[in-house]
TrEMBL record:
Subunit details: Homotrimer.
InterPro entries xrefs: ArgF'-like, Asp/Orn_carbamoyltranf_P-bd, Asp/Orn_carbamoylTrfase, Asp/Orn_carbamoylTrfase_sf, Asp_carbamoyltransf_Asp/Orn-bd
Aspartate/ornithine carbamoyltransferase Asp/Orn-binding domain sequence ranges: 184-309
GO biological process: citrulline biosynthetic process; L-arginine biosynthetic process via ornithine
Broad class of enzyme this protein falls into: transferase
Keywords carried by this UniProt record: Amino-acid biosynthesis, Arginine biosynthesis, Transferase
Gene name per UniProt: argF'
UniProt protein name: N-succinylornithine carbamoyltransferase
Source organism: Flavobacterium supellecticarium
Parts forming coiled coils: none
Amino-acid positions noted as binding N(2)-succinyl-L-ornithine in the UniProt annotation, renumbered to this chain: 142, 176, 236, 276
Pathway(s): Amino-acid biosynthesis; L-arginine biosynthesis
Amino acid sequence: MKHFTSVNHIDDLDELLLLAKQIKSDPYAHKALGTNKTIGLLFFNPSLRTRLSTQKAAANLGMNCITLNLNTESWSLEFEDGAVMDGAKSEHIKEAAQVVAQYCDIIAIRSFPTLTDKEKDEAEYVINAFIKAVSIPVISLEGSSEHPLQAVADILTIQEYKTLQKPKVVLTWAPHPKALPHAVPNSFVKMMQKANVDFVITHPEGYELNPEITQNSTIVYNQDKAFENADFIYAKNWSNYNDYGAITSQDLSWMVTPEKMALTNQAKFMHCLPVRRNQIVSDAVLDGENSIVIPQANNRTYATQAILTKILQDEK
Ligand code: CP
């Protein structure tokens, strides 16, 4: 593994999950692997879990970790080739990326989508500008179209909590007051397509994700029907993909409530967090005994550590 910016970069999911489980049971086993190595975490957007779990994963591997909040602490970057830089942008990505790469052995980047320019977002223009400019590995800490580290933690959590060989996993859209990206559901869909699960997506009509990603995954527009016999409910909001970035529904009847969960096979409730209470999910579900959002967030460390371990091993 050279870069990790998409679920597509996982060759062998079973092998990766075995490694993550081994790391979870013995987090310092590969401490020598990262000695004298540095990872640079570059954030164009806020984060709690991704930032701290990646720092912890790097520390567990013996790595140095340097973090920069690019939008608030550094020069504003120009990404266009051939730009006449007579405006607000102070530095071109070509220099910035090469300079950062001299200080680091791995670069990890968070860069959310514009939600106004679909083509630019789907080209992952920020992360790919770094990949183009440097020769060291690049990891996505959530890009404009994928959040692959989250998806590894999600499948690790499902594996830990499943009671059936092939559980039914339902990805449900849920209401939210702001327009949100498609990165988390995109990576979750890709991951479920790789996993041994019975996978169903449910959302209001018109909220279809990119069909090139959902492919032949089952889509059920009736949320109650989709929830029947589910073993895992994974809630997430996303903005409209066809009417790109728009909010075309805030229908609170899609909120995950105890009544909805009663339709399931005592399903576990999952969400990547942060989550809006009593919009996406009611207090009673989030605080209930079947909510596994906190151990799901804990698995972010071991998922990331498994990816870093593979990259460091392959760089040796
Ligand atoms: N789930 C997730 O990526 O959380 P943060 O945005 O807090 O990093």
